[in-house]
Amino acid sequence: MSTEPNTESTNFDDEDYPAYTMGRAAEMIGATPGFLRSLDEVKLISPQRSEGGHRRYSRYQLRLAARAREMVDQGTALEAACRIIILEDQLAEALRINSELRAPAELPTTADS
């Protein structure tokens, strides 16, 4: 019996693991492979490449792509949609970091008890 962790299930639990082919990714978000290529061109997402050179997408990248498709479908220009998504993502990360940095300061000390 192997004592090594099951990396396959660990990888699929990782939202940054490039698990999806271009065709499957496009199907999942209701877009075309060309739309996904355009997101790469405008630098919203940069899929990893398999050993054969095929694009592979993560769940995180698919969330961004689905948001872009939604905004484009509502009439937002692709470049503007991608810029908005990048800024939203940066803001969410900054808020997460801010929250983490504030958390230790909010814990009561033994002197406060």
UniProtKB/TrEMBL annotation:
Pfam families noted in UniProt: MerR_1
InterPro entries membership: DNA-bd_dom_put_sf (IPR009061), MerR-type_HTH_dom (IPR000551)
SMART domains named among the record's database cross-references: HTH_MERR (SM00422)
Organism: Kribbella alba
Gene3D superfamilies with a match to the protein in the record: 1.10.1660.10
Protein name as annotated: MerR family transcriptional regulator
Domain HTH merR-type: 19-87
